[in-house]
Amino acid sequence: xxxxxxxxxxxxxxxxxxxxxxxxxxxxxxxxxxxxxxxxxxxxxxxxxxxxxxxxxxxxxxxxxxxxxxxxxxxxxxxxxxxxxxxxxxxxxxxxxxxxxxxxxxxxxxxxxxxxxxxxxxxxxxxxxxxxxxxxxxxxxxxxxxxxxxxxxxxxxxxxxxxxxxxxxxxxxxxxxxxx
Length: 180
Description:
By secondary structure, the protein is an alpha+beta fold. It is built from four helices and five strands, in the order H-E-H-E-H-H-E-E-E.
């Protein structure tokens, strides 16, 4: 006998990819015959597959309060600095500045950094990873950030990379999460 939660999970996983158009088939063909189809349709597509954020898979677990107000293991700034240096150097050493490429590289590099820092398994720290890439062309830039945090437990790590045509700044902010 299946429980209600199992049935909901199964029904949710069976759903497929769907697409909804604002025009019916007949309206679309009429506009196509009259020659004004450019920008005349809008389509909404979505993927309805189970993910890590499903309601059924995110069952809440009640835990006892630890009354722990500070970290047992502090954030390793020096190790994260080495991670930032290695990743930025490996990804950008031979690259030339191209806006579209750099847009994709910021996303890729930030995900790689986040994954490698999470692999250090530092408990109860929330991570924020920000990567800036810009053209190096006889100009200057000042990038600043302000945070409201506890200086005893919260910290950051950053690294600046430069080659002949671009610069990159990667920052990782580590904020200690006090569970209540």
